[in-house]
Amino acid sequence: MHCWLFYFVISPLALFLKTEEHFRQLKTFSVIKYAFSSTLWKSSEAGAWYFVSLPDELSKEIRTHSQWMEEGWGRLKAEASIKDVKWSTAIWFDSKKNTYLLPIKAEIRKKLNLTDGVHLDIELNL
């Protein structure tokens, strides 16, 4: 009984935990850098979030190679920068637009004096 318990329950669990630890280390040290230009737009829904849509080709590349890292609802953790302002954020896959969206929070818009319709150069690290 003890031998069965070790080989079929404990051993696979230990392997899983080791794999998860390796995955965490991989995510910590692996950074994929992207640069793109896009226009800031305001959502028409209540609460009106501001976003930039990632270019279609870039979204397709990210979705193809990084979808396995998505958390719930197509969320990928990211670090974004516009000019000299950097912040931790996430991009979200919008299945209606078939692209990733980068939310631009009020704090960032105020620091950079950004308004709806402005064209931005953005760096994104996943």
UniProtKB/TrEMBL annotation:
It comes from the Bacteria. Pfam families: DUF1905. InterPro entries: AF2212/PG0164-like_sf, DUF1905. SUPFAM superfamilies: AF2212/PG0164-like. This is DUF1905 domain-containing protein. It comes from Luteibaculum oceani.
